[in-house]
């Protein structure tokens, strides 16, 4: 069976929150420093689940009532991202992960992958505020960033989730620089206006973790036209395992969304762009824990129960082969 490929895991951000991902999951849960978000992800759990590769994020969190330690300016965002980069390098030195910088490296890693190998990680910057400006992009490319999502909420580069608006002048310069350096656009979190403009400037695009607006309204999710545009440009869309992104109106305390409901998003995308453009982008432990994940999910390995809802001949693709094919061709 082929390796699992998850297109969105906030590994280093979780370490910044105080979680030791090198511990067994049961041990981490016994003293989890993050309240009300039962952890699902550790390196051991990913290994036992068959995860061979992922897009691991550099996610700088802005200051908010829930996260007062977040950044107030690009310098603060940069400090967070650099600290997370150091964390990934430390994990690589300790042989928990292997940082992958090209499609050729990814292919070699997965061709020989078994559960004795470390997790392969391709760096994805989620929210572009750690960049001073477009002239800063070569530095981040040199250290291994291969995908950038310009937005999270609003950034200095683009309108984003619940923060509508176009690309800024700085954002347009960034997208041109990304195109020139072959840094892929991650469309997740982009507001519609920014999305369409960004595709004109950098057509090499994926959505690492985006469910369908056909089921859940709001600009955090992809419209059918947006999904088609990604598919037409050869991109893949990763599915998020968060109940409020799966079932409209879900709120804390409700029965969690089902795997069958999650699969409805997958099937809808498949109807629009084909099963070969659908993959995993679970975002587990990305600001939510088990309490907001899928009904019946107890740990990361349960993500793979989604495959039971997928046509049998498409399961290997959704499991990881679709992301692998894309990454080997485009990174």
Automatic annotation (TrEMBL):
GO BP terms in the entry: proteolysis
UniProt cross-references to InterPro entries, sorted A to Z: Metal_Hydrolase, Pept_M19
GO molecular function, one term: metallodipeptidase activity
Transmembrane feature ranges: none
Superkingdom, taxonomy of origin: Bacteria
PROSITE patterns per record: RENAL_DIPEPTIDASE_2
A Pfam family of this chain: Peptidase_M19
Protein name as annotated: Peptidase
Organism: Deinococcus ruber
């Amino acid at each position: 069976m082929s390796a699992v490929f998850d297109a969105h895991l906030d590994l280093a951000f979780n370490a910044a929150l105080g979680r030791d991902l090198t511990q067994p999951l049961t041990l981490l849960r016994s003293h989890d420093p993050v309240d009300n978000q039962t952890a699902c992800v550790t390196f051991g759990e990913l290994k036992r689940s068959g995860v061979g590769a992922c897009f691991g994020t550099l996610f700088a969190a802005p200051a908010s009532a829930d996260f007062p330690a977040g950044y107030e300016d690009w310098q603060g965002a940069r400090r967070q991202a650099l600290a997370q980069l150091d964390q990934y390098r430390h994990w690589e030195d300790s042989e928990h992960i292997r940082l992958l910088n090209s499609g050729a490296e990814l292919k070699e890693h997965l061709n020989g992958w078994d559960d004795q190998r470390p997790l392969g990680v391709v760096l994805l910057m989620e929210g572009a505020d750690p960049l001073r400006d477009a002239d800063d992009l070569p530095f981040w490319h040199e250290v291994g960033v291969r995908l950038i999502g310009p937005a999270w909420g609003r950034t200095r580069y683009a309108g984003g989730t619940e923060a509508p608006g176009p690309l800024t002048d700085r954002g347009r310069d960034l997208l041109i620089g990304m195109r020139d350096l072959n840094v892929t656009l991650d469309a997740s979190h982009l507001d519609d206006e920014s999305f369409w403009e960004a595709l004109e400037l950098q057509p090499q695009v994926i959505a690492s973790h985006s469910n369908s607006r056909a089921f859940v309204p709001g600009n955090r999710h992809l419209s059918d036209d947006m999904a088609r545009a990604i598919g037409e440009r050869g991109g893949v869309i990763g599915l998020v395992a968060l109940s409020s992104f799966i079932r409209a109106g879900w709120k804390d305390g409700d029965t969690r969304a089902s795997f069958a409901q999650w699969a409805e998003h997958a099937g809808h995308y498949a109807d629009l762009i084909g099963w070969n453009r659908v993959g995993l982008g679970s975002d587990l432990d990305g600001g939510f824990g088990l309490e907001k994940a899928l009904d019946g999910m107890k740990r990361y390995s349960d993500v793979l129960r989604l495959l039971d809802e997928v046509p049998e001949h498409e399961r290997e693709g959704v499991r990881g082969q679709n992301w692998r094919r894309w990454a080997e061709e485009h990174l």
